[in-house]
Design goal:
With about 110 residues, the chain is of the alpha+beta class. The protein contains 2 helices and 8 strands. The strands form 2 sheets. A 5-stranded antiparallel beta sheet has the order 1-2-3-4-6. A 3-stranded mixed beta sheet has the order 5-8-7, with no helix packed on it. The longest helix is centred in the C-terminal third of the chain and has 11 residues.
Length: about 110
């Protein structure tokens, strides 16, 4: 898979499956893309990501949560992570759900 195909795969996702979060993308910076998530409660969250190609032409997504954290089943409070492109698109499609506001003012997201 090349970078253009990977980026098209990500940017084709306009919202999560239940429609609670709408996605828009800022692709003006060549090296770092920005995902803007607008939740149904009006909260806006930003996630920046880079695409990297590694062994066997596999594309990975390195992402950083700018104003929230993600709680995975086995890891809590994740602010940055590396996913394969297919896992990242699955996370966007199925897994991000707004949960609660954390004590330090960041948003917690549950996967």
């Amino acid at each position: 898979m090349n970078f253009n195909t990977a980026l098209k795969s990500i940017t084709s996702i306009e919202s999560n499956l239940d429609g609670d979060i709408k996605y828009s993308y800022d692709l003006t910076n060549i090296n770092t893309c920005k995902l803007i998530m607008l939740c149904s409660d009006g909260a806006e969250r930003h996630l920046t990501f880079k695409l990297k190609k590694e062994i066997k032409r596999r594309v990975y997504v390195n992402f950083i949560c700018n104003d929230f954290r993600i709680d995975f089943p086995l890891m809590k409070g994740v602010e940055r992570f590396k996913f394969g492109i297919k896992d990242f698109t699955i996370m966007l499609s199925y897994g991000i759900k707004s949960d609660k506001i954390s004590p330090n003012g960041n948003f917690d997201i549950e996967f």
